[in-house]
Specification:
Elements: E1 4-9, H1 16-30, E2 34-39, H2 43-47, H3 49-53, E3 59-63, E4 86-90, H4 98-101, E5 109-113, H5 118-125, E6 132-134, E7 151-156, H6 165-168, H7 174-189, H8 195-205, H9 212-217, H10 219-243, E8 248-251, H11 256-261, E9 266-268, H12 274-283, E10 284-288, H13 301-308, E11 312-316, H14 319-325, E12 330-332, H15 337-349, H16 355-368, H17 371-383
Parallel strand pairs: 1-2, 1-3, 3-4, 4-5, 5-6, 7-8, 7-10, 8-9, 10-11, 11-12
Length: 390
């Protein structure tokens, strides 16, 4: 049995995906597999790509489905000429990777998605795309901290400006404008339901349904609404914290305007590498996950990273998270921000009583939700014969 895996590395903002890939490889190795690495910034190796891909491997693995779109000199997708299984793990929304997956419905290609509903959405766009399975985000652990909690609240994420739909796209169509406006109304009242669900509700009111043709035609609307809910969630949580008088440690680019408004309540570190992020998490009593439920049935890595750094995570609620995690995290009702403030103050006032909970959360995440564990799960999927059930 071939036990060598080719792993393809790309580039990632703050190296976070490269770090995740490093840890996934550890999971492969724990299962007894060897790994060969192809870095896309290695010009010499890329010149010999055909030779590298012609070798025999158990399977080829790449986060974000790197090289899925690569054609040969005859404009034929390379993956279609191979028998080796090729796993492309998409760790965000499949819509951002259409150019990689739209022509890759082959017996040897598999999309690994982080949301249980990705298969449903993939099949809406590409009927017959059966090779879609769920592999959730994992978490990062801080290995180099003494456990002292000298920070109350850590808030991370990139502060991006929200433009109107008209400013964001070229030649917006009237139907797109209508769908954006009506979906924004629904999301402002119920931000937990997710972008596609809101869009489905608007289409139902119009006597339409989100089908194969529409989901591709409306990709600009979905992209915009994705950014809209991220912005609204991030700013709503952050302003509520500051207006309540909390001091916030912020990681990520931007935040210039809000720092002017609250100069004495913000310590801003800018963009940092993932190892620094986890070190800051391990120093924080509370880690905010200002990320709306983009993954309707999935997790953001920040939730598990907070557990692995022995911090309490506050995250916007969803039915899926409540079912999966119970009381392991603190939930934010985006329509009741006053309760979030009370809950945060309660955690800070009673932090000494949280130690048993923190240790239990750490053990739970360490056993079930590390990136290394995800690597082991991918091997289990491969060794099962790449069955099509998640």
């Amino acid at each position: 049995m071939n036990k060598t895996i080719l792993v393809i590395y790309g580039e990632s903002q703050y190296s976070v995906l490269c770090k995740a890939t490093d840890l996934v490889i550890l999971g492969f190795q724990r299962k007894g597999y060897q790994v060969e690495i192809l870095r896309m910034d290695d010009a010499d190796k890329m010149q010999h790509l055909d030779e590298i891909l012609s070798k025999e491997y158990a399977f080829i693995f790449s986060i974000q489905a790197l090289l899925f779109e690569l054609n040969n000199a005859n404009a034929i997708p390379i993956v279609s000429l191979m028998e080796t299984p090729w796993f492309g793990w998409i760790v965000d929304d499949i819509l951002y990777h259409l150019h990689k997956v739209m022509n890759n419905q082959y017996e040897n290609t598999y999309i690994l998605g982080v949301d249980n509903r990705m298969k449903e959405y993939a099949q809406l766009m590409f009927p017959g795309m059966d090779h879609v399975v769920t592999v959730y985000h994992g978490g990062f652990e801080c290995k180099h901290h003494d456990g002292q909690k000298d920070m109350d609240i850590l808030f991370s994420g990139t502060d991006t400006e929200l433009k109107s739909f008209e400013e964001s796209v070229e030649n917006p169509m009237p139907v797109e404008l209508f769908l954006v406006q009506e979906s924004e109304k629904i999301l402002s009242e119920n931000p937990q339901i997710g972008v596609r669900t809101a869009l489905k509700q608007v289409l139902m009111q119009m006597g339409e349904e989100l089908n194969t043709d529409l989901i591709l035609e409306l990709s600009r609307v979905i992209f915009y609404l994705d950014g809209y809910v991220r912005y609204q969630c991030r700013t709503k949580i952050l302003y509520t914290l500051l207006e309540a008088g909390f001091h916030i440690h912020i990681l990520g680019n931007g935040y210039d305007e809000i720092k002017k408004q609250y100069p004495n309540q913000i310590t801003h570190y800018g963009a940092v590498e993932i190892d620094e992020v986890t070190e800051m998490m391990s120093r924080s009593k509370i880690v905010m996950n200002p990320f709306p439920p983009i993954f309707e049935q999935g997790f953001h890595e920040r939730i598990f990273s907070a557990m692995l750094c022995k911090s309490i995570c506050f995250t916007p609620e969803s039915d899926f998270l409540r079912q999966q995690l119970g009381e392991r995290v603190e939930y934010i009702d985006l329509n009741n921000m006053e309760q979030m403030v009370l809950d945060i103050q309660s955690v800070l006032d009673n932090y000494d009583k949280q130690q048993e909970r923190l240790e239990d959360n750490y053990q739970y995440a360490f056993v079930n939700h590390t990136w290394e564990k995800r690597g082991e799960e991918i091997i289990d999927f491969y060794e099962s014969g790449c069955g099509l059930q998640p």
